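Need tokens for this chain, all 126 residues.
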Amino acid sequence: MDYRTPLSRAKGLGSAKSGTGHWWMQRVTAVALVPLSFWLIKFLGLSLTAPYQQTVDWLTSPINTVCIVAWTIAAFYHAALGLQVVIEDYVAAEGPKIISIWVVNLAFLFLAIAALLAVFRIVSIG
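Here are the structure tokens for all 126 residues:
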């Protein structure tokens, strides 16, 4: 039995079945970023106060590398999801909305790849 109105069936309106997954991933990445941010704070503190080689040695430890990589992935994904919600809420026209979401997603993908390559390069040199 279909509970949608005849008008919504004709227009193809209704649930896109993606809102819950989007909301859930926003919360999962937010929770993951809380403990992972301690590694980022430690890394930034070392970067500002410790000698270069000590910072590199700290980053080349497997647990520290994994945590910084996980923070990078979670942070960029969380930011992309958040900006997508802002765009969906405040851009009315469909064309600019879709283009803006694509541009934001591609920009964050590019930035995440650049950040990960920088971490892997430091780890491989160290």
